[in-house]
Amino acid sequence: MLLSRTATMAKTIWFLLVTLLFLFASAAAADTQIKVTNNPADKLVAELNNNRTAHKASALYDNPGLACLALQYIKAYEGDCKAVGGPNGKKPADSQFAETFAPNCGIQASTLSQITGRLLGCQSEYLHASEAFSQTLIRNSKSLDILYSKNHTEVGAAVSGTDGGSPYFWCVLFSSGKPNSTFVFEGGVPKLSKPGCFSGANDECSGAHDWSQPSLVWSFGATALIALGYVLGL
Ligand SMILES: *[C@@H]1O[C@H](CO)[C@@H](O)[C@H](O)[C@H]1NC(C)=O
Ligand SMILES: *[C@@H]1O[C@H](CO)[C@@H](O)[C@H](O)[C@H]1NC(C)=O
Ligand SMILES: *[C@@H]1O[C@H](CO)[C@@H](O)[C@H](O)[C@H]1NC(C)=O
């Protein structure tokens, strides 16, 4: 009796393992096919464009060069959250774009274009893109005006980038430049700079923590746990 029960259980476990392996493999295959970027900066741009189109403004082109500049913009704060907004708010000088941000990104200086708006936020805990958008970046009617402005044609977003941990900075830069011919990388290839993530480069990137990156491993682990619970419950 006990023996046959053990045998049934072993069979069940074997069956579950095979099923899991199959699921895991097909999930991995789907992942490469769909090519969803697991990048919080891309998610922020998607959120922002959804919000703009719902407001009858145009969706903006996600320019990786502009987004790389947004990450440099964050780095200029050297992790000083208090320097963002408020009475002691500071912002990098406009000249920094040509002098340091563009060279650090490998962007051709001649392709820099006008910045028509910026949204910047910082907080000590990590938020997901949609929360960062509604709670940190869009706080008042002034930021809504910037969001909905008809002057923008393109956008670039970046998250964090000081040491990869807290505090978390989010930056969105808007421009009125021609999407394809502005903020162009030398050689045409985005120069990725870690830590931090920026949008538009088709880059798998986890904004802040390594924990958010292996989402596949996570879902696999969760499935395994559920399966384990199921087996034990027999
Ligand atoms: C757009 O974002 C603002 C600020 O978060 C929010 O109040 C508004 O409901 C959003 N609109 C849509 C259509 O999602
Ligand atoms: C759009 O651009 C015009 C001309 O540069 C400027 O006067 C206006 O304030 C801008 N609008 C917004 C919402 O930034
Ligand atoms: C702009 O970029 C897109 C995507 O890379 C490309 O398909 C299109 O041909 C480009 N347009 C121009 C005018 O260069």
Largest sheet: 5 strands, mixed
Mean pLDDT over the full residue set: 82
**Shape category:** globular
Strands, total number: 5
Number of domains: 2
Which regions have little confidence, pLDDT < 50, spanning 5+ residues? 28-35, 210-223
Strand-residue proportion: 5-15%
- Roughly how many Å apart are the termini? 15 Å
Assigned CATH architecture of the largest domain: 3-Layer(aba) Sandwich
> What's the CATH class label of the largest domain?
Alpha Beta
SS content category: alpha+beta
Supply Rg. Answer: 22 Å
Give the names of the bound compounds: 2-acetamido-2-deoxy-beta-D-glucopyranose
Helical segment count: 7
- What is the name of the CATH topology of the largest domain? Pathogenesis-related Protein p14a
What string, H for helix and E for strand, traces the elements in order?
HHEHHEHHEEEH
Q: For this structure, what is the CATH homologous superfamily of the largest domain?
A: CAP
Keywords: Signal
Signal peptide: 1-29
Organism: Quillaja saponaria (Soap bark tree)
Protein name: Ferredoxin-like protein
Describe the structure.
- This is Ferredoxin-like protein.
- It comes from Quillaja saponaria (Soap bark tree).
- Residues 1-29 form the signal peptide.
- Keywords: Signal.
- The chain has 234 residues and is α+β, with helices and mostly antiparallel strands.
- The protein folds into two domains: 2-35 and 214-232; 40-211, CAP (Pathogenesis-related Protein p14a, 3-Layer(aba) Sandwich), CATH 3.40.33.
- Helices cover 45% and strands 12% of the residues.
- It contains seven helices and five strands; from the N terminus they run H-H-E-H-H-E-H-H-E-E-E-H.
- It has helices spanning 2-34, 40-54, 64-75, 95-105, 129-137, 141-148, 215-232; strands at 61-62, 115-123, 154-159, 168-175, 197-198.
- Strands 1, 2, 3, 4 and 5 form a five-stranded mixed beta sheet that branches.
- A hairpin with an 8-residue loop joins strand 3 and strand 4.
- The longest helix has 33 residues, at 2-34.
- The chain is globular and about 75 Å long.
- Residues 28-35 and 210-223 have low confidence and may be disordered.
- The site of one 2-acetamido-2-deoxy-beta-D-glucopyranose (NAG) has 4 residues, from helix 2.
